[in-house]
Amino acid sequence: MKKNRGKIEEVQMDSRELATPAGYSITAKEFVCATRLKGVVVIVPATGVKQSYYFKFADFIRNNGYVVFTFDYGGIGASRKGPLRDFHTSATAWAKNDLEAVIRYAGKKYPEAKQVLIGHSIGGQLIGLAPSSVLASRIVLIAAQNGYWKFWKGAGRLRMLLNWYFLFPVITKIFGYFPGKKLGVMEDLPKGMVREWRKWCVTPDYLFGYYEEESLFFHKVRGKLIVYSVEDDRFAPEEAVNWLSRKYAGTGMVRRHLIPADFGLEKIGHFGIFKSKNKSHFWNLLLGDMEN
């Protein structure tokens, strides 16, 4: 059930516990298609963002002809099964285990349907680490970037420098996990994920500095690529988004850079595309890019 402007509406959403190759389970939600089935969409979340953030967007997509899957990474939201100090995972595991498990489940349940992967921020990075991503007919990257700190400028660069050389490593060591909720910045993060993510963010080639090319799947993707960046996004500079998008192969690319004033808005930011208040500005645009 969900609340919308004081009204209670029924949402066709089923919960799934999915096993992953890493040995832990994750919680996914399946939004049942409300019309004739056009395809299957998997929404791949940003770091420290619960799947519930994407529920209203997922409901919109399911009402336009798609089955939609959302999920929480291991240690996040409904996939947090116990104390994070005792939970072992990594950014790589989030891709090769968690995301891979969802893609495989969706493909097995709907084998004839075309699959679309929508990756928000780190979600767009992790798509290229998941083997089954090569089967997608469309890959949509929303503010997905190279997280190397020198892509930022001015005060943003200083903030990223402090994040990766002080805040994240020190606080994670003290608590045994990153207490994002206590700090009011995101969900809590498992220590193994933070350590790997931090390592990527101090490396110019980001995650690509730690893998042989043949073990990655960015260049093996054959579906159409749709890439969004946002002018006032303090977490994904346009240049960093361009850098990551060039790592993907595919049959073609649609590239959109959104400027708030063009939509009569004061701000969009890193999360604004998925906010229901911006539905009229972005959701049909995104749907059209998925289908054309």
Automatic annotation (TrEMBL):
Keywords: Hydrolase, Membrane, Transmembrane, Transmembrane helix. The chain crosses the membrane at residues 160-178. Residues 37-127 form the Serine aminopeptidase S33 domain. The keyword Cytoplasm does not apply. This is Alpha/beta fold hydrolase. GO terms for molecular function: hydrolase activity. It holds the Pfam family Hydrolase_4. InterPro entries: AB_hydrolase_fold (IPR029058), Hydrolase_4 (IPR022742), UCP037442_abhydr (IPR017208).
